[in-house]
């Protein structure tokens, strides 16, 4: 029982400290840029959250379900990555061929293609980060899991702050700071756990991939619907109001959401 409680506490450390760092990040960012610019940045972060529901295809949940059923954990991990990486590639191609349209749709400027390029890069990082952290969690390495959870938030804060202080003070600073911070964390994860990702053709298991996909379909549908409901408020504000209102609403919403972690 003592071991269980200790692990529970260790697993809780990461989310609590991560939420604290996020709590610091929100007002700091809002201090340096105008509500309008923050509103533009929040739409990018919102799009990133929405994409996650479609990228994983529910296979992240299927991975945890099958974890103790499959003896070779690397085989399971690498087969679980196949469809999400394929989905990321398809979405990336669609985004890159429609950069001007998407930039104009989200930020009112068809020339702002940088965020779209950064988004396509971040999709791959999000997938590896998600599944590697799940792998650590399933191995019950509580402190290691918490350390990486904190590292991701901390690097995002430091890089964003650096960009705001020494480069520019607009919505691009938040986007670039967030993505670069995440990618740095993901690179560290990949370097440390590269042995888990030694892809071998012999590891490819069509039946296992199909099994993961079929289990993930209901989860994918549920998460997709949930993603639409949780993001439609800010998209509606963008369509029917302006970026300033989106920025003010997002700051208030983030503070309220972060407070839930401490309840």
UniProtKB/TrEMBL annotation:
Top-level division of the source organism's lineage: Bacteria
Compartments where located: Cell membrane
Record field: transmembrane: 12-33, 39-59, 80-102, 114-132, 144-167, 173-192, 212-232
NAD listed as a keyword: no
InterPro entries: Poly_Biosynth_Transport, Polysacc_synth
Membrane-topology annotation of the record: Multi-pass membrane protein
Annotated GO CC locations: plasma membrane
Predominant localisation class: membrane
Record keywords, A-Z: Cell membrane, Membrane, Transmembrane, Transmembrane helix
Keyword Transmembrane: yes
Pfam families: Polysacc_synt
Matching PANTHER family: O-ANTIGEN TRANSPORTER-RELATED (PTHR30250:SF11), PST FAMILY PREDICTED COLANIC ACID TRANSPORTER (PTHR30250)
The protein's name: Polysaccharide biosynthesis protein
């Amino acid at each position: 029982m003592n071991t269980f409680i200790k692990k529970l506490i260790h697993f809780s450390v990461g989310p609590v400290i991560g939420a604290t760092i996020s709590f610091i990040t929100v007002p700091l960012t809002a201090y340096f840029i105008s509500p309008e610019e923050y509103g533009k940045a929040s739409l990018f972060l919102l799009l990133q959250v929405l994409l996650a529901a479609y990228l994983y295809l529910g296979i992240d949940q299927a991975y945890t379900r099958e974890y103790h059923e499959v003896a070779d954990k690397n085989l399971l991990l690498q087969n679980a990555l196949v469809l999400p990486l394929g989905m990321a590639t398809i979405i990336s191609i669609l985004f890159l061929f429609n950069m001007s349209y998407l930039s104009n749709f989200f930020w009112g400027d068809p020339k702002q293609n940088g965020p779209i390029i950064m988004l396509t890069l971040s999709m791959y990082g999000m997938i590896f980060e998600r599944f590697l952290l799940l792998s650590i969690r399933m191995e019950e390495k509580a402190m290691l899991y918490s350390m990486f959870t904190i590292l991701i938030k901390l690097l995002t804060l430091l890089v964003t702050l650096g960009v705001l202080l020494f480069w520019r003070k607009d919505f691009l600073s938040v986007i670039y700071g967030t993505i670069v911070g995440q990618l740095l964390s993901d690179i560290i994860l990949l370097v440390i756990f590269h042995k888990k990702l030694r892809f071998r053709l012999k590891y490819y298991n069509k039946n296992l991939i199909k099994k993961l996909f079929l289990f993930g379909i209901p989860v994918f549908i549920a998460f997709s619907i949930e993603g639409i409901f949780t993001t439609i408020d800010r998209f509606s504000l963008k369509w029917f109001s302006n970026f300033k209102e989106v920025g003010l609403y997002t700051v208030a919403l983030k503070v309220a959401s972060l407070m839930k972690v401490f309840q």
